[in-house]
Write a structure and sequence with these properties.
Elements (H helix, E strand, L loop, with lengths): L2 E4 L3 E5 L5 E6 L2 E4 L4 E4 L3 H18 L6 E6 L2 E5 L2 E2 L2 E8 L3 H6 L6 E11 L8 E2 L1 H6 L5 H24 L2 E12 L5 E4 L7 E5 L9 H4 L5 H14 L1
Antiparallel strand pairs: 1-2, 2-3, 3-7, 4-5, 6-7, 8-12, 9-10, 9-12, 10-11, 12-13, 12-14
The protein binds cytidine-5'-monophosphate (C5P).
The site of cytidine-5'-monophosphate (C5P) has 13 residues, from β9, β12 and β14.
Length: 233
C-alpha cells in the first residue's frame, strides 16, 4: 500500500479502491504540539478499537462519518475525503486552552456548548480562527461554516449521551471534517480519549489524554478502562 500521509498519531495509506483509504493508528503519543513525545506499545490498537466503536455508535444515531470498517489490530478502512484543515472544538465545560485564554474557571459548565475553530497548521501552532479567517483562507463559505457548526453540535449531543451512560462528563472534544468525492462534508479523523476530555461524574478522574499530558496516570490503563466502560453500555 502506498503511504499517502504520516501524521503524529496515524499513517494513511491508499488502497486498491481510489475512494477508500486505510488508516494505521500508531503507538506514538505527543502533547503540546510535539513537545512531549513517547512511544507507548498498545496505544494504536486502543485508539483504533475505541474510535471504531464510537463511529459505529454515531452511525447508529444517524451521524455518518468516513469510517467503513476495522480491518486489523490498529487499522481501519475509511472513505477517502479531502480533510478541511480546521480543528473543530466543542466545549461543554471549561478546561484546557479556554481557561488559559479567557480566564474562565475550570469546571464551569457553559449554558450552551461553545464551538471553536482552529487552523490545522503546526508551524503556526494551530491558531484559533474566526469565520472571516476561514473564508479569507479559502477553507469554507458562510454556509460551510454553519454546516460544520451544526454537525459538530449534533456529534456533541450524541457523544454526550453515550458518555453520560458511562458516568462520564464530556467536557470538550475536537473533531475534523473532510469533503468526499461528491463534495459532501463528512465527519473524519478519529474520536477517542486522545481527542476528548472526559471526567468521571463521581470522582472527576480523567478518562482521557490529560493523564499523559499532566503525567497523572497510565495512558494504557486509562484507555483500557474507557474501552471496557464503552463496551459495557
Ligand atoms: O487544548 P484544548 O483545551 O483546546 O483542547 C480541547 C479539546 O480538543 C480537548 O479534548 C483536546 O483533547 C482536543 N484537542 C485535540 N487535538 C488538538 C487540540 C485539542 O484532540 N490538536
Amino acid at each position: 500500500m502506498t503511504l499517502l500521509y504520516e501524521g503524529k498519531a496515524k499513517s494513511v495509506y491508499e488502497t486498491d479502491d481510489k475512494n477508500v483509504l486505510s488508516i494505521e493508528y500508531k503507538d506514538e503519543v505527543t502533547a503540546g504540539n510535539g513537545e512531549k513525545h513517547d512511544f507507548i506499545p498498545g496505544k494504536g490498537h486502543l485508539n483504533n478499537i475505541i474510535s471504531a466503536a464510537l463511529f459505529e455508535r454515531l452511525h447508529a444515531f444517524g451521524i455518518p462519518s468516513h469510517f467503513i470498517a476495522k480491518t486489523g489490530e490498529a487499522s481501519q478502512l475509511v472513505k477517502r475525503v479531502d480533510i478541511i484543515p480546521l480543528e473543530v472544538v466543542v466545549r461543554n465545560t471549561a478546561a484546557g486552552n479556554i481557561v488559559k485564554r479567557l480566564g474562565v474557571t475550570e469546571g464551569e459548565v457553559f449554558e450552551t456548548p461553545l464551538v471553536e475553530f482552529y487552523l490545522k497548521e503546526d508551524s503556526l501552532n494551530d491558531p484559533i480562527v474566526t469565520e472571516d479567517h476561514i473564508k479569507l483562507l479559502g477553507h469554507g463559505t458562510d454556509s460551510n461554516v454553519a454546516e460544520l457548526k451544526e454537525k459538530a453540535l449534533a456529534v456533541n449531543e450524541v457523544l454526550t449521551g453515550i458518555m453520560n451512560k458511562m458516568n462520564l462528563t464530556l467536557v470538550d472534544f475536537k473533531i475534523e471534517f473532510g469533503r468526499d468525492v461528491e463534495g459532501n462534508i463528512l465527519l473524519a479523523d478519529e474520536i477517542s480519549p486522545d481527542t476528548c476530555r472526559l471526567w468521571d461524574k463521581d470522582t472527576n478522574e480523567n478518562f482521557d489524554k490529560d493523564v499523559y499530558r499532566n503525567d497523572t496516570g497510565s495512558l494504557i490503563d486509562t484507555y483500557n478502562k474507557f474501552y471496557n466502560k464503552l463496551e459495557g453500555i
